[in-house]
Structure formats: structure tokens, C-alpha cells
Amino acid sequence: MKETLLAVTLVLTLGACKSEKGIEKESLVKKEVKMELSVKDKTIAVLKSIETGDKEAVSYINSTNYKQHNLAVGDGLAGFGALLALAPADGFKVNTVRAFEDGDYGFAQTEYDFFGPKIGFDVFRYENGQIVEHWDNLIETAAANPSGHTQTDGTTTITDLDKTEANKTLVANFVNDILVNGKMEKLTGYFDGDNYIQHNPNIGDGLSGLGQALEAMAKQGITMEYTTIHKVLGQGNFVLTISEGKFAGQPTSYYDLFRVENNKIAEHWDVMETIAAEADRKNTNGKFNFPN
């Protein structure tokens, strides 16, 4: 309805302008019309503002009600500002590779030069068009994996918007069945044979690559545990899960992005981050506190 009213208003206004001052007036009115950005576009703009300092993008953050869940950053807009003040002389660099929206949430996968090269997933929650909460996971950029894939390359095109909820359910079931509950007899049902593209820097493509990596970890006494899924977000063929567990005995936050194709998991990107000890945290908002 909003878009219809805006279109009608624009047509009426332009008609009046043409009768008065012609094409020049019409051009002016077009420039004055501002369309509301989508949650996805605002998310991209806010992330880029870390590099550019764009004030309009920063205004998408609620200045009086902004809760920070990155445990290394102080709460509120002041905490965000304090972090930016630590930027080196040549500033931070930001390149968002994939961005999505799911209701009031915007989420993205981004390449950073942020105290060194890093890969991150960021999640923002919006209220009344402004960001009121932020969660993320960051990891240092690594070399290509055994199959030659980087942490961010691969498909970016969003498709199958009508299958968003079905794909979210599929991925949530996979994480619960396989990663949380270890029901390995169900593993092959989630994949199209060995056709599985992997972007984890330590794992090769296919279920065969996953098996080899898990075997190598076991020989080193390294365990990977998932205990709880805290959030599932999706748009079309992409689904992000945010989970908690332990890696090599350390409390760990898992952000896993999956691409679904023909009802099977086809591609995977991830960022694992060790959860900071309470004594080292700069806010008390929790790493996984999402509204119900």
C-alpha cells in the first residue's frame, strides 16, 4: 500500500510540475523523492560505513537503543564509536560478499581488513527501520582449503524465495540431527551424493572431504561439539544457523551458512569463534541472546 500511495503521489506531483515549469521541475521532484531502503540494503550500508564513515548509514542505528552482542565491544552506539576510533591511519576496509534479510533481521558475510584480514558474519535486528541489536562472529582470513575454495567465494545469487521456510527447516533439522545429536545414519539423506561444496579452510569438498577432516581431527584428539541452535535465519536458498558448543574443549560460537539446492545441502561457509571469558567481556548482553 505504501508503494502504491508513493507512486500515485509522484504521478500527481509530476503532472503539476509539468504544467508549471516543464521537464526541469520534474527532474527536481524526482531527486527529492527518497525510497525507504530494504533491511538488506541498510545492512550493507551500515557495514560499509565502518570504512567510509557515512553519516546517513550510521543514522540507521538507533542512537538511544542499540544493544551490542560482540563481547569485545562496549554496549550502545558509544561502544561502536569507541571501536571505530581505534582504526589505523588508513582506516578499516569492508567488502560485503553476501547479504540477506529475514523479517526484522539483516545478515551478511563480509571480508574485513579490521586489525588484520578477517572474515565475519554480522546479524542486525531492526525495529521501526532502525538497528537495535547486533551479533557477529569473526575469524582471521585463511588460505584456500584442500579443494581450492576460499572462505567467501562461490555462489551469491539468491533464488527460491518461495522455499525460504522449507529450506530453514531442512537446515535446522540437519544441524540438530547430525551436529547436535550425532545421528550419522541420517547424514546422506541431506546431500546429493558427494556433491557438496565446502568453504571451511580445513575441509575439502564432498562428504568424503568432511569424513577425512573429522578423521584427522580425531587422530589429534580434537573434538567439535554442537550443543544448541540459538537462531536460524534464511532468505531463499541461503540459510544461516547460529549455534553454541565446544571446539577442542573451548566454548565456541558457530555461524554456518548453507546453500540449498533441490532440497539438498549444496554449499557451506562458516566462521567459528572462541567465546570470550566473562572477565574479558566489554558488555553483559550475552553472545546468543535473541528475542523470542
Q: How many extended strands?
A: 10
Number of alpha- plus pi-helical segments = 7
β-strand amount: 25-35%
Taking Cα atoms only, what radius of gyration do you get, to the nearest Å? 22 Å
CATH architect. name of the largest domain? Roll
Low-pLDDT segments: 1-33
Secondary structure: helix percent: 25-40%
Write the layout of secondary structure elements.
Elements: H1 2-21, H2 23-32, H3 39-52, H4 55-58, E1 67-68, H5 76-84, E2 93-102, E3 105-113, E4 117-127, E5 130-140, H6 164-180, E6 197-198, H7 206-219, E7 224-235, E8 238-247, E9 250-261, E10 264-274
Parallel strand pairs: 1-5, 6-10
Antiparallel strand pairs: 2-3, 3-4, 4-5, 7-8, 8-9, 9-10
Helix pairs in contact: 1-2
Describe the fold and architecture.
It contains seven helices and ten strands. The radius of gyration is 22 Å and the shape is globular. The protein folds into three domains: 31 residues; 104 residues, Roll (Nuclear Transport Factor 2, Chain: A); 119 residues, Nuclear Transport Factor 2, Chain: A (Roll). The protein is an alpha+beta fold. It has a five-stranded mixed beta sheet, covered by helices on one side. The protein has a five-stranded mixed beta sheet with strand order 6-10-9-8-7, with helices on one face. α1 runs antiparallel to α2.
